[in-house]
Amino acid sequence: MVALQDIEAFILAGGKSQRMGEEKGLALLKGLPMVTYIIKTLQSVPLGVKLISANIDYNQFGLLVYADSKQGKGHMGGLMTALEQTCKPYVLLMGCYMPFVSKGTVRYLIENSQDHKINVRINPILAIYPKSIIPHLKVHIENNQLKMQDFISSQDHYIVKMDYFERLEPNVLTNINSSEDLKYWNMK
Prior knowledge:
The chain has about 190 residues and is an alpha/beta fold. The chain has a seven-stranded mixed β-sheet with strand order 5-4-1-6-8-7-9, with helices on both faces. The protein is globular. Strand 7 (about 120) and strand 8 form a beta hairpin. It has seven helices and nine strands; from the N terminus they run βββαββαβαββααβαα. The protein has helices at about 35-45, 75-85, 105-110, 135-140, 150-155, 165-170, 180-185, and strands at about 5-10, 30, 30-35, 50, 65, 90-95, 120, 125-130, 155-160. Its cofactor is Mg(2+).
């Protein structure tokens, strides 16, 4: 198991937001910016939380915000930025579009993780990554191999089974990626 004190959380809040039509993390869900739900969840674990975005509007949350060190490289660039900016041996990476992830889900992921491996559910944007992958990640980015699943498959990894939480909380791993998704969840 990876110890809680060895992990720092980073929320990916950059990207083009083409399907959403607006900045995903700042889009209002039940009257609050979507990223607010994730920040509160991660802080309740408790984890230190930082954001990755070039948008200065994220400064309103009182957290450190970093722009991608590798511009235009998507999630892989965000992961590299997180690994470069943390002083901890592990990074918990999470997308700003996952507002229903619970404290229990995050703690379960941590408690069922394995040292020195990428610990992932099927979704690579709710995962724990060790700093030791930086050299391999750098090669993938330099070669423009930007698919997270391909990168994870090429590394020592462990898939954490999350079936229990998906049964208990069916929406816990829901991604809100489009304006239609947002409208649906605002009406629910």
